[in-house]
Amino acid sequence: MEGLVSQLHSNIQQVMNGGGAEAVKRNRKRNKLLPRERIDRLIDPGSSFLEFSQLAGHELYEDLLPSGGIITGIGPVHGKLCMFVANDPTVKGGTYYPITIKKHLRAQEIAAQCRLPCMYLVDSGGAFLPKQAEVFPDKENFGRIFYNQAVMSAEGIPQIALVLGSCTAGGAYIPAMADESVMVKGNGTIFLAGPPLVKAATGEEVSAEDLGGATVHCMKSGVSDYFAQDEEHALAIGRNIVKNLHMAGKLDGSHNTVAEYKEPLYDVKELRSIAPTDLKQSFDIRSIISRVVDGSEFDEFKKLYGTTLVTGFARIFGQPVGIIGNNGILFNESALKGAHFIELCAQRNIPLIFLQNITGFMVGSKSEANGIAKAGAKMVMAVSCAKVPKITVIIGGSFGAGNYAMCGRAYSPNFMFFWPNARISVMGGPQAAGVLSQIERANKKKAGIQWGEEEEEKFKARVVEAYDREGSAYFSTARLWDDGVIDPADTRKILGLCVAASTNPSVVTGNSWDKLILNSDTPVLVEFYTSWCGPCNMVHRVISEIATDYSGKLKCFVLDADCDPQVTENYEIKAVPVVLLFKNGVKRESIMGTMPKEFYMAAIDRVLAS
């Protein structure tokens, strides 16, 4: 595994150079930062940035396309987790290849699912024209980016654009459709048609700055809202925009959202040596779990039943999770156990973490007679219907229907990652070679063609080679079948950030809101507001401070009364702002209007003491 981890870090280091030394040099001459430098200045100092799909586009095209030409990931800005989408102008001028679009759309999907504010760092020449048939006309092509922006904005998920370079043609809609946008003097430009096309179409000769620079769009057209003197100024404005968003309090997944937690008893770096590169070699999944969860404390569920599947409850950075890990092939009992545990977590609103190392379900006449298909279907149904955050990490094999039962990509996990030793295929290469060779032999026999043993072995070798290549973690991540290949030693940190993002308080609406209040073992504060209410902003500032002061003792959430009228009606909210306090699912305090911080604190103390 150490060799695979070294190779992973080497591959990642290569894409960190973007489009190469010359492209970076040209970027510097224009006084422009690189995309990851821009993100680093936006997120809170000392905090973590979780970058997705760093190796997107790896060996996918004849041209090199480091990270797919776009950087995406989540990190905190003033304590609020945000989704970042940053074009890399050093890679093909920041233009969009098919994989670039897919990566952009995946970032938007995560943002919508977790209700994360989106920060678009725009520096792009638009669609890559030589591949126009693959980037323009279909549903999940370039136009879907703007559709997603419109839908998220309408749902109250902030859309923020920082125009730090070119923003041409259809790409101009990114800042135009943002809730707030910033433009940099000199480098930032927005236009549907650039100077060459304008001259060809109308005969007008105009510079890029005069056609669509920051002065034009901040002073005349009104397309942009903030004028920045340089990039540093633009990034500072971007941070201030997030600071002023009316959202729930501290959501920094880089540290615990609960007051205290224990580090694992075992070194997380030992994860690199536990999982073998030979998937035929077995290991106890509990050795992985003990290096990921708080205090290495794991309350195992049905320990003596269905032992090839390990299930149980734990915490990661103080956040409760349910863990499902493979300890061998899935039998009837283990599938039924898995379905039962998934349903429990769904009822209790507990996020699920799947640790995949599965060759599939048990096959054979005995298993079929015992109903393995039905038992497996129950687990697949439970995974499909569980409306709680799901995070999947493939730590070994992921084959056949086992992939489905353990929340593969088709089952919409909030996040999905591979370890570098991971393999994913409909079946193993040798098994596929055996099946396909039987079919090929039968076809040749029917056609009256002799098929010698040597030819058959060559045929099998080609199948095995293809399955080995297409089943690798790098083949998967290049095509965005996952959200990234990760160092096993980073698993705990990444899971903590993903759980924090997935349990973002503003995600909870409708029926799940009631479920969260009823099932919470910690007192809950709910702040009802509307975006147009001035006093609501005053109350929110106070509640944000209280959320920090009472961290670990109180869960604080914000609910837009306009967006959830049914919940507002259920709790008989007649006017806003209103703050409700719950304990054990029962409403204990109701505070209307604006009150001093001390008033809210006294009410909270009464509830905590009750």
From TrEMBL:
<dbReference type="GO" id="GO:1905202">
    <property type="term" value="C:methylcrotonoyl-CoA carboxylase complex"/>
</dbReference>
<dbReference type="InterPro" id="IPR045190">
    <property type="entry name" value="MCCB/AccD1-like"/>
</dbReference>
<dbReference type="InterPro" id="IPR036249">
    <property type="entry name" value="Thioredoxin-like_sf"/>
</dbReference>
<dbReference type="GO" id="GO:0005524">
    <property type="term" value="F:ATP binding"/>
</dbReference>
<keyword id="KW-0813">Transport</keyword>
<keyword id="KW-0809">Transit peptide</keyword>
<protein>
    <recommendedName>
        <fullName>methylcrotonoyl-CoA carboxylase</fullName>
        <ecNumber>6.4.1.4</ecNumber>
    </recommendedName>
</protein>
<keyword id="KW-0547">Nucleotide-binding</keyword>
<dbReference type="Pfam" id="PF01039">
    <property type="entry name" value="Carboxyl_trans"/>
</dbReference>
<keyword id="KW-1015">Disulfide bond</keyword>
<dbReference type="InterPro" id="IPR011762">
    <property type="entry name" value="COA_CT_N"/>
</dbReference>
<comment type="similarity">
    <text>Belongs to the AccD/PCCB family.</text>
</comment>
<feature type="domain" description="Thioredoxin">
    <location>
        <begin position="493"/>
        <end position="609"/>
    </location>
</feature>
<dbReference type="GO" id="GO:0004485">
    <property type="term" value="F:methylcrotonoyl-CoA carboxylase activity"/>
</dbReference>
<dbReference type="GO" id="GO:0005739">
    <property type="term" value="C:mitochondrion"/>
</dbReference>
<dbReference type="InterPro" id="IPR011763">
    <property type="entry name" value="COA_CT_C"/>
</dbReference>
<feature type="domain" description="CoA carboxyltransferase C-terminal">
    <location>
        <begin position="263"/>
        <end position="522"/>
    </location>
</feature>
<keyword id="KW-0067">ATP-binding</keyword>
<dbReference type="Pfam" id="PF00085">
    <property type="entry name" value="Thioredoxin"/>
</dbReference>
<comment type="pathway">
    <text>Amino-acid degradation; L-leucine degradation; (S)-3-hydroxy-3-methylglutaryl-CoA from 3-isovaleryl-CoA: step 2/3.</text>
</comment>
<dbReference type="InterPro" id="IPR034733">
    <property type="entry name" value="AcCoA_carboxyl_beta"/>
</dbReference>
<dbReference type="InterPro" id="IPR017937">
    <property type="entry name" value="Thioredoxin_CS"/>
</dbReference>
<dbReference type="InterPro" id="IPR029045">
    <property type="entry name" value="ClpP/crotonase-like_dom_sf"/>
</dbReference>
<feature type="domain" description="CoA carboxyltransferase N-terminal">
    <location>
        <begin position="1"/>
        <end position="257"/>
    </location>
</feature>
<keyword id="KW-0676">Redox-active center</keyword>
<dbReference type="GO" id="GO:0006552">
    <property type="term" value="P:L-leucine catabolic process"/>
</dbReference>
<keyword id="KW-0249">Electron transport</keyword>
<dbReference type="InterPro" id="IPR013766">
    <property type="entry name" value="Thioredoxin_domain"/>
</dbReference>
